[in-house]
Structures are given as C-alpha cells and as structure tokens.
Amino acid sequence: MKSCSVTARAHTNIALVKYWGKKNQELIIPMNNSLSLTLDHFYTDTTVTFDKELEHDTFYLNNKLKDDPKIKSFMNLVRSLANIKTFATIDSVNHVPTQAGLASSASAYAALAKAASCAAGLNLNKTNLSRLARRGSGSACRSIYGGFVEWQQGTNDTDSYAVPFLENVDWDISVLAIVLNSKEKKITSRLGMQSVVASSPYYQAWVETCQQNISDLKKAILARNFDEMGRISEENAMKMHALNLSASPHFNYFEPESLIAMRLVEELRQTGISCYYTLDAGPNVKVLCLRKDVTAIKKKLSTVFSPEQLLLSSPGPGVTLI
Ligand code: 2P0
C-alpha cells in the first residue's frame, strides 16, 4: 500500500437520553439506547497517514506528541479490518475554545474512525463506520450522523450502532454551554459507569425507564414540542447523576457553580422562558433552549458567569472528509 493521507472532521454530541453503563466492556455494548444531538460548535479534525517507513504509530493531539494506548489499540483494530500491517501518523486537532473542558472522545473517535478507515482503503458504510467508532468510545458512534441520533444498544459487535433519527434539524434549537472549572480530577466516564452498574441499587430502574424516555423523546422531537423535549432531557440527566450519588462508593460531577447554574435555569423557567439543563461526566451545564430566547438567557446567566464561560451551539452535521 502506498503512503495515503486522509483528513476527517467530526462534531461532538450532547446526549439527551444518556448512555451510562456497559454490558460488554471490550466491545463497548451499552446497557441502554441513548439519543443525542450533534453540535456544530465543537469538532475535531484528524489526519491519518499510513507510511511503510514507520515502525510504530505516532499520535499528535493539538500538535503535541502523545502516548495514548487507546489510540494504538484502535489503530490495531483498523489494521486487522483492512488486513494491513503499516503504521500511521495520527494528527488530531480539537476545535474547542481552550480551557473549555468540552473536548470530547465522541468527536475524536468519530473523526479517527473515518480518517483511519478511509486511509487504510476500507470503504465502510455509515453503519459499519458507527460500529468502528463505537470501539474507540461509545458516544463516538453517534457523532457519525448529524442532528438527532439514536444509538441502538444491540447485543453484540454487529448490531450495536447509531442510526439517524432527524438529521436535518428544521428547528431553532440552541445549546448554551456554561463552562466551569473543575478543581479536582473527577472519575472518568468509563470508571464511573462501571461503578454504577456494579453498585447502584437503582441501576435496573435506570435501564427500564430509559426505554420509555427514548420513545417519549422521539415523539416530542417529531411534534417539535420543545418543553416536552427539554423536560425529558433534564429528568434523564438528573436520573444519571442520581445513579452516581447512589453508587458505592458514591461520587458526583457537580461543582458548586453547577448547582448555581441549574438554579438560574429553573428561575428563568419560572419567568416563562423555556430552557432546560443537562450535564455529562463533568461540571459544565448545557442549557437547551430556543434561539429566540438566547439573549434573555445569557443576560440572566451573566449575573454570575462571564461572557467567555457561555458558548453557544446549534445542531451540527455528521462526519465528513475535508
Ligand atoms: C453520553 N457520556 O451518552 C454519556 C453521558 C457521558 C455522560 O458517553 O467508555 O467517553 O469511551 O464508551 O463515550 C461519555 O462516555 O465512554 C459518555 P466510553 P464515553 O454521552
């Protein structure tokens, strides 16, 4: 195989019904379906160059050399699928405002799956690309598509992948991320969800109710019922964080400012503005709202947070070659 270089761009996604727990750690098969919205503002560009002269893979993140075993095992997977032995240079740049803490394994592995598979000569359809991205990081399988996307849990490597639910979002939805600094290093998603599956007495209830959340959320999206969509998303996020609080040992991702931000969103709601919050495995609060209300919401949040802490996104596209 001659030296071949491919660049792909993938965007992050925010889960409205979250993935929190695996039934297979190695293959990354989740315990429940999840449903996300791909965002336009935060993305990763990754170039993969296979080169016969190389004796190992070399990975640069934001132009800095990194030793990342997860990237190496992912590249081994791509090589085994393509039946090649050539090593590669992987050059990845996160287009996320510095210090935002929003860099995501979702955009990273979606971009890497696309760039590496194309550079290796594999011509994967989107289903197989989603399956491949999933092996890097679960949430990455959803970033193959734009708009609203469902990850169908499946039972094994072949039937666990994302499908588009509403790719071209004809709806003026915005996501306002409130960027907060975490003082301490929190538990990773991977370990956090593992601990919850093993020890939360409420885990079975999570799995059972997520299926209903997904079907109600899909109805709300199809009806363009923003309040229903927001309510389901906020409740599902709090249910995920309640699992963390109920694990043994218990943990949480909240900072004091996270609770302040949530309170401000609730106060805005009491004044008649439709807005809802969701949080992932970190302290940042993401506010789901309609574009027409962004100015009023920013005004209220600015009483506590600086303009640099408020980052606005809209629905974004799926993975592409650039
Ligand atoms: C999600 N999160 O659905 C959930 C909600 C965080 C909270 O997927 O172990 O980096 O690599 O599959 O995908 C973050 O976990 O975990 C995540 P792995 P991942 O977006």
TrEMBL record:
Keywords: ATP-binding, Lipid biosynthesis, Lipid metabolism, Lyase, Nucleotide-binding. GO terms for biological process: isopentenyl diphosphate biosynthetic process, mevalonate pathway. SUPFAM superfamilies: GHMP Kinase, C-terminal domain, Ribosomal protein S5 domain 2-like. Residues 10-162 form the Diphosphomevalonate decarboxylase-like N-terminal domain. The keyword Aminoacyl-tRNA synthetase does not apply. One of its GO terms (cellular component) is cytosol. Coiled coil: none annotated. Residues 175-309 form the Mvd1 C-terminal domain. Its EC number is 4.1.1.33. It is an enzyme of class 4 (lyase). GO terms for molecular function: ATP binding; diphosphomevalonate decarboxylase activity. It holds the Pfam family MVD-like_N. Transmembrane segments: none annotated. The keyword ATP-binding applies. InterPro entries: GHMP_kinase_C_sf, Mev_decarb, Mev_diP_decarb, MVD-like_N, Mvd1_C, Ribosomal_Su5_D2-typ_SF, Ribsml_uS5_D2-typ_fold_subgr. Belongs to the diphosphomevalonate decarboxylase family. This is diphosphomevalonate decarboxylase. It comes from Ligilactobacillus ubinensis. The lineage of its organism: Bacteria, Bacillati, Bacillota, Bacilli, Lactobacillales.
